Amino acid sequence: SEGENLHFTGVPVFAPEHFCRVTLAEPLKSKQLNKALDQLSEEGAVQVFRPMYGSEQILGVVGVLQFEVVQFRIEHEYNVKVRFTRLPYGAARWIFSDDSKAMEDFVRAQSSVICYDQHEQKAILLEDLWKLKFLNERYPKITYSSTSEKV
Asked: What would the pLDDT profile of 81-121 be if each residue is shown by its tens digit?
Protein backbone atom coordinates (compact mmCIF):
# COMPACT_ATOMS: atom_id res chain seq x y z
CA SER A 1 0.00 0.00 0.00
CA GLU A 2 0.97 3.64 -0.22
CA GLY A 3 3.95 4.76 1.82
CA GLU A 4 5.30 1.28 2.50
CA ASN A 5 8.91 0.53 1.65
CA LEU A 6 9.26 -2.44 -0.65
CA HIS A 7 12.35 -4.61 -0.63
CA PHE A 8 12.91 -6.59 -3.83
CA THR A 9 15.46 -9.37 -3.41
CA GLY A 10 15.49 -10.41 -7.06
CA VAL A 11 14.17 -13.48 -8.78
CA PRO A 12 14.72 -16.54 -6.60
CA VAL A 13 16.85 -19.37 -7.93
CA PHE A 14 15.02 -22.68 -7.58
CA ALA A 15 16.62 -26.01 -6.78
CA PRO A 16 17.58 -28.14 -9.78
CA GLU A 17 16.57 -31.80 -9.99
CA HIS A 18 19.10 -33.10 -12.53
CA PHE A 19 22.87 -32.89 -12.25
CA CYS A 20 25.95 -33.61 -14.31
CA ARG A 21 29.69 -33.14 -14.11
CA VAL A 22 31.12 -31.11 -16.97
CA THR A 23 34.52 -32.12 -18.36
CA LEU A 24 36.57 -30.31 -20.97
CA ALA A 25 37.64 -32.25 -24.05
CA GLU A 26 40.44 -29.67 -24.48
CA PRO A 27 41.86 -28.65 -21.07
CA LEU A 28 43.41 -25.48 -22.51
CA LYS A 29 39.93 -24.00 -22.97
CA SER A 30 39.07 -23.69 -19.28
CA LYS A 31 38.76 -19.88 -19.46
CA GLN A 32 36.25 -20.16 -22.29
CA LEU A 33 34.29 -22.79 -20.37
CA ASN A 34 34.20 -20.62 -17.25
CA LYS A 35 33.00 -17.66 -19.33
CA ALA A 36 30.29 -19.81 -20.93
CA LEU A 37 29.09 -21.17 -17.59
CA ASP A 38 29.10 -17.71 -16.00
CA GLN A 39 26.99 -16.35 -18.86
CA LEU A 40 24.60 -19.30 -18.95
CA SER A 41 24.10 -19.21 -15.19
CA GLU A 42 23.43 -15.46 -15.29
CA GLU A 43 20.77 -16.13 -17.93
CA GLY A 44 19.23 -18.82 -15.72
CA ALA A 45 19.83 -21.62 -18.25
CA VAL A 46 21.86 -23.64 -15.74
CA GLN A 47 23.09 -23.52 -12.17
CA VAL A 48 26.76 -24.10 -11.52
CA PHE A 49 27.96 -25.77 -8.34
CA ARG A 50 31.54 -26.24 -7.15
CA PRO A 51 32.18 -29.08 -4.70
CA MET A 52 33.71 -28.14 -1.37
CA TYR A 53 36.74 -30.21 -2.31
CA GLY A 54 37.97 -30.45 -5.88
CA SER A 55 37.90 -28.23 -8.92
CA GLU A 56 35.23 -29.92 -11.01
CA GLN A 57 32.06 -28.10 -11.91
CA ILE A 58 28.62 -29.58 -11.46
CA LEU A 59 25.70 -28.32 -13.49
CA GLY A 60 22.15 -28.41 -12.21
CA VAL A 61 18.97 -27.99 -14.22
CA VAL A 62 15.25 -28.36 -13.58
CA GLY A 63 14.52 -30.28 -16.80
CA VAL A 64 16.87 -32.87 -18.29
CA LEU A 65 16.53 -31.43 -21.82
CA GLN A 66 18.28 -28.29 -20.58
CA PHE A 67 21.54 -30.28 -20.60
CA GLU A 68 21.31 -30.68 -24.38
CA VAL A 69 20.62 -26.98 -24.86
CA VAL A 70 23.47 -25.96 -22.55
CA GLN A 71 25.93 -28.36 -24.21
CA PHE A 72 24.94 -27.12 -27.67
CA ARG A 73 25.39 -23.50 -26.64
CA ILE A 74 28.78 -24.13 -24.99
CA GLU A 75 30.04 -25.95 -28.07
CA HIS A 76 28.62 -23.57 -30.69
CA GLU A 77 28.65 -20.15 -29.03
CA TYR A 78 31.92 -20.56 -27.11
CA ASN A 79 33.65 -23.15 -29.32
CA VAL A 80 34.38 -25.44 -26.36
CA LYS A 81 33.95 -29.22 -26.59
CA VAL A 82 32.61 -30.68 -23.35
CA ARG A 83 31.39 -33.99 -21.97
CA PHE A 84 28.55 -34.23 -19.50
CA THR A 85 28.44 -37.12 -17.03
CA ARG A 86 25.13 -37.58 -15.24
CA LEU A 87 25.30 -37.67 -11.46
CA PRO A 88 22.98 -39.62 -9.11
CA TYR A 89 21.51 -36.60 -7.34
CA GLY A 90 17.84 -35.72 -7.55
CA ALA A 91 17.68 -32.57 -5.45
CA ALA A 92 19.71 -29.69 -4.10
CA ARG A 93 18.99 -27.56 -1.08
CA TRP A 94 20.70 -24.40 0.08
CA ILE A 95 21.68 -24.71 3.71
CA PHE A 96 21.55 -22.07 6.42
CA SER A 97 21.90 -21.96 10.18
CA ASP A 98 22.12 -19.30 12.86
CA ASP A 99 24.19 -21.78 14.89
CA SER A 100 27.74 -21.70 13.49
CA LYS A 101 28.80 -24.80 15.44
CA ALA A 102 25.83 -26.79 14.12
CA MET A 103 26.67 -25.67 10.57
CA GLU A 104 30.34 -26.56 11.03
CA ASP A 105 29.43 -30.05 12.32
CA PHE A 106 26.94 -30.56 9.48
CA VAL A 107 29.39 -29.48 6.78
CA ARG A 108 32.12 -31.71 8.21
CA ALA A 109 29.79 -34.73 8.30
CA GLN A 110 28.36 -34.11 4.81
CA SER A 111 31.49 -32.71 3.10
CA SER A 112 31.32 -35.10 0.14
CA VAL A 113 27.99 -33.59 -1.00
CA ILE A 114 28.41 -29.97 0.11
CA CYS A 115 29.08 -27.49 -2.66
CA TYR A 116 28.95 -23.78 -3.41
CA ASP A 117 26.71 -22.17 -5.98
CA GLN A 118 27.76 -19.37 -8.32
CA HIS A 119 27.15 -16.86 -5.49
CA GLU A 120 29.25 -18.81 -2.95
CA GLN A 121 26.16 -19.96 -1.04
CA LYS A 122 26.47 -23.40 0.55
CA ALA A 123 24.22 -26.12 -0.83
CA ILE A 124 23.88 -29.85 -0.39
CA LEU A 125 23.29 -32.33 -3.21
CA LEU A 126 20.84 -35.09 -2.31
CA GLU A 127 20.06 -38.40 -3.97
CA ASP A 128 16.39 -38.03 -3.07
CA LEU A 129 14.01 -36.25 -0.74
CA TRP A 130 14.08 -39.16 1.72
CA LYS A 131 17.67 -38.13 2.47
CA LEU A 132 16.43 -34.59 3.16
CA LYS A 133 13.89 -35.93 5.67
CA PHE A 134 16.65 -37.94 7.37
CA LEU A 135 19.00 -34.92 7.54
CA ASN A 136 16.21 -32.68 8.82
CA GLU A 137 15.64 -35.05 11.74
CA ARG A 138 19.32 -35.56 12.45
CA TYR A 139 20.38 -31.90 12.11
CA PRO A 140 17.40 -29.81 13.32
CA LYS A 141 19.43 -26.59 13.56
CA ILE A 142 20.06 -26.58 9.80
CA THR A 143 17.53 -24.94 7.49
CA TYR A 144 17.15 -26.47 4.02
CA SER A 145 15.78 -24.17 1.33
CA SER A 146 14.60 -25.00 -2.18
CA THR A 147 15.58 -21.47 -3.25
CA SER A 148 18.87 -19.68 -2.79
CA GLU A 149 17.16 -16.96 -0.75
CA LYS A 150 17.57 -17.26 3.02
CA VAL A 151 14.10 -17.27 4.58
From this structure: 999 999 999 999 999 999 999 999 999 999 999 999 999 99
* Buried b or exposed e, range 17-49, using 16+ CB within 10 angstroms: ebbbebebeeeebeeebeebbeebbeeeebbbb
Which domains are present in the chain?
A: 13-151 (3.30.70.3280)
pLDDT by residue (tens digit) across 14-44? Answer: 789 999 999 999 989 999 999 999 999 999 9
Three-state secondary structure call for residue 68: helix
* CB 90, CB 126: distance < 8 Å: yes
